[in-house]
Amino acid sequence: LFRLPAEKMANVTKGTDKSRFYLQTRERLRDRLPHFWHVLQDVFTPTDQEEQLLPLPKPLTFLHRIFRPVRLSAKYIKAAFKSGN
Fold it and tell me: How confident is the model at residue 24 (pLDDT cuts 50, 70, 90)?
């Protein structure tokens, strides 16, 4: 077994750091693909927030799958600019 330095291990609990850690510990591409697929599903699967922010009639609810990645991108870009200042 290997051990990570304490400062890196503390970051493993954060969402993106946890994903990055998981991908770095997998050596083969075929071991990384299931995790990558899971992340993509999380990004494109609408939550209640999308339905609340963008109420749509039933025939147009498929648009929530497009709206979610746009909303998440805006959220993280905004957070990056705030932390950069």
Answer: confident
